[in-house]
Amino acid sequence: MVKRLLILCMVLFQLPLQAATVKLSSDQVFLGEPLIVRLISEPGESLDSHLAQLPVQEWAKEFVLELHSNQRNQAAIYLYPYQSGVFSLAAGGDFVGSHVRVLDNPNIKVQWQAKMPQRMYPQQQGFWQAQVQLSQPDWRVQMQSFVANPWQTNPERLRQPETLPALLAGELQGVLRVPHTFATDLSVTSERVPQRLTLYSPVLEVRSEQSKVWKFFDRPQTVWLEPLPEFIVPNPLIGQIKWQQTAPPSWLPVGAVGIWQWQLQGVQMAPIEAQSALRALLAQLPRTEEVEWFAPTIEQDVDNQGGWRIQIPIRLGQSGQVVLPSWSWRFFDPESGKVDVRSLPGPTIWTYAPWQAGLFWLLIFFLGGLLSFTVWVLGRFYWQRYRVIQLLSTGQISRGQRQLWQLTAEWLGQPPIQNWQQWQKALGISEELAQQIYRALYAPAPPKDSQALLSLLQEHTRTIRFDSHQFAREGHKLLALWQRLRGRQRFKRF
C-alpha cells in the first residue's frame, strides 16, 4: 500500500503545470503611471510557481516593481518606469512579451539629481534630490521611502529620516532632498574589503484630489562601501571641511561673556552623527585657567547644505591679555580617504577692570575737551584776525581807530589799547612803516601810495600766526570764567 502511494505521488509531481492567464493592462502609459501585469493561475495550482517563471529580473532593469496579491490564485505586478521611451517587456513563463511606450507626463515634470559619491563610508551622508513641477496647485507631493520587493531592495543598514520632505499646499514647484547614511555598526566584511551595493531611490508620490497617484523613481545607484581606517577615532567628523571663525570682541570687561563662533561647511554626515562628532571635537579643545568655558551651542545651518554653526560662550576672570588656545580640527576626508588635521591659532583678547574703563573714558573725555578747546581758540583767533583785516581794507582807519584798537586787543589777547603806539607794539610794526601809515592817515593831502601802504599793512597782519602764548591766555580766561561761575553758585547757596 505504501509503495503504491509513493508511486502515485511521484506521478503527480511530475505532471506539468497548466498554463496561467497573464494579461498586460496597456501597452502605453504616461510617466508616473504603472503598467500592470495580472497573473491568474488555475484553482489548486501554486501561484508562486508561475511567478517564479516570469522574467521579472529583466523587467527590473527598466521598471520598479510592486507585487500585489489579493487572492490565492491571482497576483498583480505594477511596473513603474524610470523614464519615458519605448521598452520591450521580455517574454518568459506564461507571458508572451510585449512592446510598451512610456510618454512624458504633461502635468508633472520630475528631474532627479543624485547627490552621492561612488565611494562611501559608514556615517557618510548622500542625497537623493528631485526637482518637481506641477500644473495643478491642488495636487500634493510627498517623498516616500522605497518599498522593497522580492527583486529590488535596499541594503539592510541604509538609514533615512523618518519624516521625508513634501511640497507645501499650493506650491507648483520645488526641490525635495532625501538624505541617507549607512549605520555606524555596519559590518563590511571580516577582511575589511569594500562592498559593492545598489541603492534604490525613494519614491516621489503625487496625489490628486480624486486620489489618483503617480509614482516617480530614479534609476538605482551603485556605490562602493568602504571601511574607515582602523586607527581612526570612533565617530569621526566626515567631509571636506571648511571653516571660518568669528572671534569674540578684542576688548572685553572682566566678567563679561563673549562668544567664540565657528562656521563649518562641507560636513557629510546626518545631523545626529554630526552633532556627536562635533561634541567629541569640542571635548578635545584645550582649556586655560584664565577662561571660564560654558556649554557650546551646535546648530545646523538649514540654508547651507552641510553647514554647521558652533558658538562657545566664554568668560574672562582677570584683566590683561588673554590668548585663547589653538584648536586642532581632525576630520576624515572621503575624497582622499585620509585623515586631515588642521590647526588654527586662537584669537587674542584684552580684558579690563571697571576702574580701567573709567580711566579710559576720562582720558577720552579730557582729550575730546582739549581738542574742542583747541579748535575753538584757533577759530576765534583767525576769525578776529579776519575782522581786523576787513577793517583795514575799508581805508577809514582814522574814523574807526578805537574800533580797530579794540578788535586788535581782543584778537591778540592784549590789555585795552589806547593809542597808536600801543597798537603798533601789539602788531610788531616797524617804526618806518608806522611813520608812513601816520602820514597817510593824517596828512592834509594823502600820498598817492596810501592804498599801497594799507595793503602792506594788511599783508603784515596776515603774517601774524597763532602761538602757544595765545593758547595759554585763552586757557587762563576760561579758567577765570569757571572760577567766577563757581563763586556765583556758592553765593546762591547762602
* Shape type: elongated
Count of distinct structural domains:
4
Number of helices: 10
As a percent range, the share of strand residues is 25-35%
Query: CATH architecture of the largest domain, please?
Result: Sandwich
- Give Rg in angstroms: 47 Å
How many strand segments? 27
Q: Give the helix level as a range of percent.
A: 25-40%
Quick overview of this protein structure:
The chain has 494 residues and is of the alpha+beta class. The chain is 30% helix and 33% strand.
What does this structure look like?
This protein has 494 residues and is of the alpha+beta class. The chain has four domains: 19-103, Immunoglobulin-like (Sandwich), CATH 2.60.40; 108-225, Sandwich (Immunoglobulin-like); 237-352, Immunoglobulin-like (Sandwich), CATH 2.60.40; 368-484, no CATH class. The chain has ten helices and 27 strands. It has helices at residues 2-13, 47-53, 56-59, 271-283, 354-393, 401-412, 420-427, 431-442, 450-462, 468-493; strands at 21-24, 28-30, 35-40, 63-71, 74-81, 85-89, 98-103, 108-115, 119-120, 125-134, 140-144, 158-159, 173-182, 195-199, 203-207, 213-216, 221-225, 237-246, 251-253, 257-267, 291-293, 297-301, 307-316, 320-323, 327-333, 338-344, 348-352. The chain is elongated, with a radius of gyration of 47 Å. The termini are far apart. The model is unreliable at 1-17 and 186-191 (pLDDT under 50).
